[in-house]
Every structure is written in C-alpha cells, then in structure tokens.
Amino acid sequence: MQTLIEMKMNELKKMKNVCIFGHGIYGKHLYNEISNTAITNLFFCDNKPNNSNNTPYEILTPSNAVEKLVLEGGGIIIPITMCIQPHNLGMIEQLYSLGMDMKHVYFFDMKNISKRDGFSDARLLCLHDWLKVGFSELESDAKRNKNVSWLDIKDRNIRLIGKEKFKADIFDYFNELKITQITNDDDIIEMNTQYLTVICDFDKESWLTKVENLQLNHKEDFIWIEDIIGCLNETETYFTNVYHPNKKIVVVGTQPWVSMVVENNPNMNVCKTVIIQWNEDIRQQINEDNVLIICATSDYILAKHSMQDAGYVFGEDFYLYDVNSTKLASMLYLTIKCENIRNINCTPAMFTSIDKVGSLMHCCARYEWVTGNVLCNTLENIFKSPLYKVMHLSSVNKTFCFCDKDCSFYTAYEECLMTETMISEKRNPQKLRELKDSLIALLYSVACNIKCRSCRNEIWDNSFDQNPNTLAVHKEVMSSASNIQKFCNPYGDVFFSKMAREIFNEANINYMYFNTNGTTINKKNWAILLDKVKDIFVSFSIDGATKETFEYLRRGAKYEVVMDNLKYAAELREAGKIRRLEINTVAQVKNFREFVDIAQMAKNLKVDLIYFAPLRYVAALWSQAEYDAMNIYDPKNPYHQEFKDIVSSNPILQEPFSLFYFKK
C-alpha cells in the first residue's frame, strides 16, 4: 500500500512542470531532494529573482511561473516547517490572485527532511487536503458518523460508561459538555432518556448485544466514543457553538481563505461572506448586526487592528481563523486510543514556546503543531482552545502522541503497551492548565553573546531581535506579562537578551527555567534572580571537559569563567537555593571522548542531570555531508560504534543522571 507521500509524489511526477516557491535555504534543500526523483522539469519562483545571480537554477517571478504552469500544466510546492506561517498564507493569496489552481498548490513539511530517513517520514499535502485533514495520518480511521454533530450533544445531560482511561480522557477534554455522570461498564442496563450515554470503548463487539437487547437508538439514547470525538471535525462549527451558540456567522477576509473556510465547515451557520477591503469602511461592508465575524486572511495583524478600529471587540464580536487548527478529531482520536505510553518526565522542559512570528507550540518547541498565535489571539484564549487541550491531554495521559520521536527525552524512556488493568485504572480528573500555570518560553529572542559552532557563525546581539515582526510579538507578550508567573528562556542567554530581561522585570515570576552558556550568570546576576524568583531550574551548556575543546566549540566563552560560575551554581543547589541544576552537552565527533570527564565533573558537583543532546542539522551552517561527518549519533558515522562502546563500558555514563539519545 502506498504511503501518503508516495501518492503525492506520484501526482507530481505526472506533471509536466514542478515549481518550488522560494529560493532560500529550505527551497534549495527541497530541490536537492526532489531532483533525485523522476521529476524532470523542476524550477524555482521567487519574489526577488534578481537576488539570485550566478545560480545554476532556473528562477522565475511568481507571475511568470504561474503563467507557465497554467499554459503547460504543473504544480507549485511551498516548503514549510512544522506549520503554515503567515508569510506562507501570503504566498497562497499571491498565487490565487495570479490565477493558480489551488488544487495544484502543495505544502511540504521541511521539518522531517533532514532526518536520516529522508523522504520516508516527510509530509506532502495539497492545500485542499491540508485544510481538510491537516497532517494527520488517521484521517480515514477517525471519520465521524454523519448522523451525530456537536449541535446534537451540546445541550444534553451526558453520562460516560466504558473503560476508565477513555472515560477520563473524554471527561478531561470535553469540559464544556454537561457530563453529569460517570458510571461502570455494567450500568448500561440502566440507561434511560435522562441521559445521552457515551460508550467509551473502541471495542464495540462487547456492547452491540447489550445495545440491541435494550432496543436503544443510536444518537437518541447513546453514541460511540468515535461519535463524540468526530464532532470536532468542523473546527469552526465546534468553536462557534461552544462559545457563541445560536449566532449567525459572517466570514470576511481575502481569497482563497474565505471560500475555503466555508467549504470546509459545511455545518457552520454562515449567513454571509464578504471579500473585505481593509482600508475601507468595515462596518458598511459587513452590514450585519448580532453576528459573529470570522476573519480569514493571511495578514493577522492588519485584520485584527482593522476590526478593532471599526469598533469590534476581539473575542466577542470577531475571531481570526487559524488554518493550522484543522482536523482536531483525528488528533484527539490518536491520543485517546493510543495504547502505548512512556513515563517521560520532561519537566521542566515542558513549556509553551512563542516563536519569532508569534506562534505557540506546546509542550515544547519540537511539537509539530502550532496551538495559536499571539498576534491574532490572546494567551488566555489560546490556552482555552480545543487544539491546546488536545496537546495537553497527550501529556496528561502519557501517550505523548505529538512528540518528536527523535527527541532525546522521548527515546530515552522505554515505550510500553498498556495492559487492560492500566486502561481500566481510575485517574483523578485533570484540570487542564490555565494561564497562570503555563511556563512561557521566549523562542523569538535569539540574542546571545557567544557563537557556538553547533548553533551560529556570528554573535547575534540584541539588534537581531529588532525586526518589526519580533517587536510586534514581544509587544503582545508584554501586554500579558503581569499574568506570566512561569518563565523560560531556552535559547540565547537570559542576561544578555534585552527582551528576556524586560519580561523578567515586568512579570510576577515565581518559577524560572533557563539554559545558559555560563558566561553571564555570575554572583551579581544570581543575587538578582534569587531575590525575585522562588523556584529556579538552570541548565549549563558544557561542550568540553578541557579548555581547548570547550573554547573551540563554544567560541567566545572563557573556560575558567564558565567553570567558576558553574561551581557557584552547584553551591547554590547544595544549599537548596535553586531547585535543579543540569548540564547539557551537544554530542559530536569533536567531544565524545570527553564525555566520561564531563560526567565525572557533573557528579562531583552533584548535578541533577547531564543531557548529551544530538547535534541538530542547521542548513545555514553545514552541507549534509559536513553534518553527517560531525553527527556522532548517526549509526553510519565512522566513530559511532566507538561512541557507543564508551557509553556502555563506563559505569558513570550508565548512571541514571546521564541521559543519552538512545536506550543505554
């Protein structure tokens, strides 16, 4: 049976022309991958083709590319990373305005392309498929029964029967419903018309006879667990009926998004669509009262400000449509039905991160799904959203379905199959996280005072954070700063980053987790931290046990300074003034023979954990061949077996506080 990527690649191979939109790093990387396939006429389009002189590739303007594709036939691929970003939506609007058939526009997820498996785990979907199913692999398994919709269940008194795990998951997630009773399996014989019973079990065979004997009617008396999950299929239908029941909907914005929102949400109560002109009278164009307005456009900021200038209240009168929040049903189905669990304890690595375009990822920056965007929603609303709750439930029930399967924390813990006892165990109802409980991580601030070879080739000072989009994101975060009690700065350096310091100064922080290169976290700055924050988790980046290796890999850092600061942090940890002290080491060919000494240093300092992280591919720094030569975790690397032998033969690397990318 063909995989999704194979089917889509076969579609592309049949086309006379294939165009990649964007001649940047990701575009070139995608070109190199696709050029190895049977696709022959492959070229680029770019809004700045003249900036690519002396290149061996054919580069057209988008206008000329669309003209060629319309006349001769073919498709356009837009490289993305993890999710569709606002500038990707702008590309779609541009192609639509030029006359491109949207059925021949594809998204290719570049997040997986640098993995060792190449195309095998890549994701390629046409635009229409993306909006209908997202990147879920279970769209065919989670199809809902067309006879059951959100409108059928939202006002009913509901009782849950079936397996304890599934009942707990449904109860945790659907907290808007009137779930008034949770009973045992045998109570099905007592079902009555007071309740709509949800059978929380994916094994229907054992229930069918009972249902038939009692002459119970599907939808009127009971529904299956797949039915209630399937009610999430139309994201906006679910959303508008939960928060704004009985209101008619007006969809406004730009094409093709307005048409696609309506097409992909057939049960949404849409009374009107408006292709909006943002610089003209918004109210006159909409010309409707007592309606809920859904804005579907690529320019979140322009839409939000234009609606507010027209007197509409965000969160009451209008919302912005998030193209990434499609196909909730398949995602919830996956995390509830999954029978494999891992007793992963990433804390304090679990956080809600905000990237440079305002997108939020839960529970860490390596989750593949975006849960919202601070430029088009508030943090509080995002944490209440259906998509956020799916992500959080996956960590509550320990299925971790959306984790990066290459993450060191994920691979370090043995996966186990749930037993019938585990599925039937009672779980205390979990309260999904509120804003005050969320650990906010600033991924948009990249300022750092050194240039590690595993990260960058130059020092990124605070001017790197001053682009208009980053400033807009930071402004929105600062507007909620007083509500942020938990704060994380995983990249750059917290005392070097101006934006990190602003959040730190304005927020009422009682919990802080941060990585540090160790150069600025001296006694003076520790005094500032200890005076303001109660719970502190800190991870020092130490890439070498010797001065020579350390200063080679962490260019700009002084070995003696960092060691002094690390020793002082260890004294604070031993005195109980900080909660946790870790060391993280980027594993590579240059330093793997020093791992025993680094681990011994960590043990002598009574560090809680040392984490030997894999070297991550950065296309701007290396070619694939250069990366492969440095990546000690790659089984094909000539030094990989020596690396594994060192780990297996040294007791200190076998101790629990030493964490590796593979199972020891």
Short description:
35% of the residues lie in helices and 19% in strands.
Key structural traits:
alpha/beta; Rossmann fold; 5 domains; 10-stranded mixed β-sheet; 6-stranded mixed β-sheet; 28 strands; about 35% helix
Tell me the total number of β-strands. Answer: 28
Subunit organisation of the chains: single chain
Secondary structure: helix percent: 25-40%
End-to-end distance: 35 Å
Give the tally of structural domains.
Answer: 5
Strand content: 15-25%
Describe the structure in your own words.
Helix 14 packs parallel to helix 16. Strands 18-17-16-20-22-23-24-26-27-28 form a ten-stranded mixed beta sheet. Strands 3-2-1-4-5-6 form a six-stranded mixed beta sheet, with helices on both faces. Strand 22 (486-489), helix 20 and strand 23 form a beta-alpha-beta unit. The chain is built from 27 helices and 28 strands. 42% of the residues are buried. It has five domains: 4-133, Rossmann fold (3-Layer(aba) Sandwich); 150-230, Rossmann fold; 235-324; 338-509, no CATH class; 515-664, Aldolase class I (TIM Barrel, Alpha-Beta Barrel), CATH 3.20.20.70.
Reconstruct the topology from this structure:
Blueprint: H1 4-13, E1 18-21, H2 25-34, E2 42-45, E3 59-60, H3 62-72, E4 75-80, H4 86-97, E5 105-109, E6 123-126, H5 127-133, H6 150-153, E7 157-162, H7 164-173, E8 178-182, E9 196-200, H8 205-213, E10 222-224, H9 225-230, H10 235-243, E11 248-253, H11 257-264, E12 270-275, H12 282-286, E13 291-296, H13 300-309, E14 318-320, H14 328-337, E15 340-341, E16 351-354, E17 359-363, E18 370-373, H15 379-383, H16 386-396, H17 408-412, E19 416-417, H18 420-424, E20 439-442, E21 451-452, H19 468-479, E22 486-489, H20 498-506, E23 511-516, H21 523-532, E24 535-541, H22 547-553, E25 554-555, H23 559-574, E26 580-587, H24 595-604, E27 609-614, H25 624-630, H26 640-649, H27 651-654, E28 658-659
Parallel strand pairs: 1-2, 1-4, 2-3, 4-5, 7-8, 7-9, 9-10, 11-12, 11-13, 13-14, 16-20, 20-22, 22-23, 23-24, 24-26, 26-27, 27-28
Antiparallel strand pairs: 5-6, 15-19, 16-17, 17-18, 21-25
Helix pairs in contact: 14-16
